[in-house]
Specification:
The protein has 316 residues and is of the alpha/beta class. 28% of the residues lie in helices and 19% in strands. The chain has helices at 16-19, 23-33, 36-43, 51-54, 106-109, 120-127, 145-151, 181-190, 211-218, 231-239, 297-304, 308-315; strands at residues 6-7, 13-14, 88-99, 169-172, 177-180, 195-198, 221-226, 243-246, 261-267, 273-279, 285-292. The strands form three sheets. A seven-stranded mixed beta barrel has the order 3-6-7-8-11-10-9. A two-stranded antiparallel sheet has the order 1-2. Strand 1 and strand 2 form a beta hairpin. Belongs to the aconitase/IPM isomerase family.
Length: 316
């Protein structure tokens, strides 16, 4: 640095360069202190663990023994009912679960922070006898899909254009009730209604958060229609078997108000078009073309098999 850090006994300026050790001095110091025996002593029991680790009871097994009572790690249902499909899509009677504006981030979609007591995830944990002070965060409970799917679209700052309040709420169209997005998704699931997310530009921007796609799948969402996608989240959606579609010809999300019933059909090919038929409250219908935001034949295969992991399992 150009400024002195002190003065010596003779009143002369002392600079950092005057007291900074040379590389040789540093190397000599390391050699005199850091020894082979030090590493042997430190790591000789690395696979035995400390006292707390050794007290954990477990069964010897080649595969993980899932604990049904764990609130941190649960066996997710991604691979239930695996079966390959063809590359044709025929979604009928789908409902819009939520409509979002521009620049919805992966943290909006799947927050990693604190779990609110009144949220679906908080209620789930309280019903298991866990006190709010022990909720921890979504990030710490990412191994439990029951928590994470309840946290999907639960960011307190997310704005669903179907309702007037901020947070993870939506309108359940059959009854016109306002409720949490999770609760609405589960009601639709009971009636076997496929779900769609509608969004503006740059949907999924931010960190490449895997749960933003995983949670979307577990809510029963088959398709996300946006004006544009962030590239990594687009790939993650496909990796979980969710079809990303893009508006075309100047059409935007404003064509919807959230009450529409949607059908989508056609053949999934890279950058191909699919027909989307929109049925409105007054029973009028409109047909638009949506572009498949799918770039390769391999991505088509992932979608056909329900995602990349399902694709791999079906190969074996």
């Amino acid at each position: 640095t150009k400024d002195s850090i002190c003065k010596d006994k003779n009143g002369n300026d002392v600079y950092l360069k005057d007291i900074w050790p040379t590389n040789n001095e540093i190397e000599d110091c390391v050699k005199s202190v850091v020894t082979r025996e030090m590493f042997i002593q430190k790591y000789k029991d690395v696979f035995s663990g400390d006292e707390h680790w050794r007290k954990i009871k477990c069964e010897k097994s080649e595969i993980y023994n899932w604990d049904a009572n764990s609130t941190y790690i649960q066996n997710p249902p991604y691979f239930d009912n695996l079966s390959p499909k063809n590359n044709k899509i025929d979604i009928k009677g789908a409902q819009i679960l939520a409509m979002f504006g521009d620049s919805i981030t992966t943290d909006h979609i799947s927050p990693a922070g604190n779990i609110a007591s009144s949220s679906p995830a908080g209620i789930y944990l309280k019903n298991l006898g866990i006190e709010p002070q022990d909720f921890n965060s979504y990030g710490s409970r990412r191994g439990n899909h029951n928590v994470m799917m309840r946290g999907t679209f639960a960011n307190i700052r997310i704005k669903n254009e179907m309702v007037s309040i901020e947070g993870g709420y939506t309108k359940y169209i059959p009854s016109q009730e306002t409720m949490s997005i999770f609760d609405a998704a589960m009601r639709y699931k009971e009636s076997n209604v496929p779900l769609i997310i509608v969004a503006g530009k740059e949907y999924g921007t931010g960190s490449s958060r895997d749960w933003a796609a995983k949670g979307t799948l577990l809510l029963g969402i088959k398709v996300v229609i946006a004006e544009s996608f962030e590239r990594i989240h687009r790939a993650n959606l496909i990796g979980m078997g969710i079809l990303p579609l893009i508006f075309q010809n100047g059409i935007t999300r404003k064509i919807f108000d959230g009450s529409e019933i949607i059908s989508i059909k056609g053949e999934i090919v890279p950058s191909g078009n699919l027909e989307c038929i929109i049925k409105r409250k007054d029973s009028s219908k409109q047909s638009i073309q949506l572009k498949c935001c799918v770039q390769t034949a391999t991505e088509v295969k992932y979608l056909m098999d329900g995602g990349v992991l399902s694709y791999i399992l079906l190969l074996t």
